[in-house]
Amino acid sequence: xxxxxxxxxxxxxxxxxxxxxxxxxxxxxxxxxxxxxxxxxxxxxxxxxxxxxxxxxxxxxxxxxxxxxxxxxxxxxxxxxxxxxxxxxxxxxxxxxxxxxxxxxxxxxxxxxxxxxxxxxxxxxxxxxxxxxxxxxxxxxxxxxxxxxxxxxxxxxxxxxxxxxxxxxxxxxxxxxxxxxxxxxxxxxxxxxxxxxxxxxxxxxxxxxxxxxxxxxxxxxxxxxxxxxxxxxxxxxxxxxxxxxxxxxxxxxxxxxxxxxxxxxxxxxxxxxxxxxxxxxxxxxxxxxxxxxxxxxxxxxxxxxxxxxxxxxxxxxxxxxxxxxxxxxxxxxxxxxxxxxxxxxxxxxxxxxxxxxxxxxxxxxxxxxxxxxxxxxxxxxxxxxxxxxxxxxxxxxxxxxxxxxxxxxxxxxxxxxxxxxxxxxxxxxxxxxxxxxxxxxxxxxxxxxxxxxxxxxxxxxxxxxxxxxxxxxxxxxxxxxxxxxxxxxxxxxxxxxxxxxxxxxxxxxxxxxxxxxxxxxxxxxxxxxxxxxxxxxxxxxxxxxxxx
Length: 548
Hints:
Elements: E1 4-8, E2 15-17, E3 27-29, E4 36-44, E5 55-68, E6 72-76, E7 86-91, E8 100-105, E9 115-120, H1 127-130, E10 145-151, E11 171-177, E12 194-195, E13 197-203, E14 207-211, E15 220-226, E16 229-230, E17 248-249, E18 255-256, E19 267-268, E20 282-288, E21 300-304, E22 312-313, E23 315-321, E24 325-329, E25 338-344, E26 347-348, E27 352-356, E28 362-368, E29 385-390, E30 437-438, E31 446-447, E32 451-458, E33 467-473, E34 484-485, E35 487-488, E36 499-500, E37 511-516, H2 520-527, E38 533-535, E39 546-547
Parallel strand pairs: 37-38
Antiparallel strand pairs: 1-6, 2-3, 4-5, 4-7, 5-6, 7-8, 9-10, 10-14, 11-12, 11-15, 13-14, 15-16, 15-17, 18-20, 19-20, 20-24, 21-22, 21-25, 23-24, 25-26, 25-27, 28-29, 30-31, 32-33, 33-37, 34-36, 35-39
């Protein structure tokens, strides 16, 4: 309040009638404003009242002074709030005539918009009440007090002298990443991301006390809206993230750390140790201040060497337990003893020593340019070698450090990937091997249970086609030619091995399909792709047939 206002119009003063008969035309203006009252009202359609479609807060302009008799008055504004104010001049009379009222709408008349000066918790407020939490370390679960100091926040309606207030407007306080509010030229609605709870006038006109809600993020700018009037944030450049130091708040940054006694590590899951270089394995992170699960933005989890923490970005990350647990899947990668970090609401956590380790590279076989050269490799070098294996990583990343070769007796660090040949009887003869590995002649052996029958196919197209088998590699197979198959038609007993696979390589988890030669086209019709191999041995009828 306290602003001097000038009101102009007609018949803005009481008049005395010389007689009842001449009251309408023969009157004189009194040079006194003692019988003139001026009120103004903030209307809102939010609440219906008996006064009509609008409810209102009613304020009285004080110290009415007649400047020009009947046409010009001044008064001093009362404490109040709102915009688009409706004004009423009540003119008294000096004789027994009715009261004459004049209602005029001034759409451009408004109280000043609220302005924030500081955001704080300081000695002006009972610290025990506030809990006194650092403005840049607010709890992501909410409930911290924030004291907003500024101007034009409106009166405390509990203390307002007016008894005519039918509507007390809400105080709406929003906050979010810097960017400005919808009415202040901001580039987006970021500052409206969160709505503070339990906001109330703490000191009339100058202070509002609110509590935070669940959330995440840093450098959050605040906006006060009172009676529909949205104020501005304390950002230096509206629409940008340039804000004064005391103009923003921040939630506490996420911290990765063990939170219970069940595990000594804050990062667990199948993706931590001996992880597949293909990715897709679970990582579970525990800690504090991760924010609520319903947060609009998923956490960003990165891991890698300490000085390259963002080498890998985990996939499908989400907060699985409010504030304390994040679940992700590993991505394609290589390497050992990786550190990990999480970013939530643009806040980066600590760098945690998670020791995430991918599986070591595993050599299965190699092919050389000089395979058919009886003299062996050239001593000059420069001949190509193709190495086949697993856990090598991706072509795109290509993090191959080195390839070494040597005699095992010379280089003690040389690790042989597959088992050495043994004198075990070849299980293809039907004799069980005592050490469960196939005997071989090329310096490597193969586990006997690697290739398994996973499906028999005897379909219903013409001639009962396609006829096929599905086989599953339970482990890596360096040379598929150690395996074969046979079909015992119509219960006639074993015919022995009728087909031998070519010398191909399979990896653990691979499926292969072998079809009856005459039904290969039908196989594609049925499944939409070609079989890997064909053989005449699979001419079976599906009844009383045994497969080996």
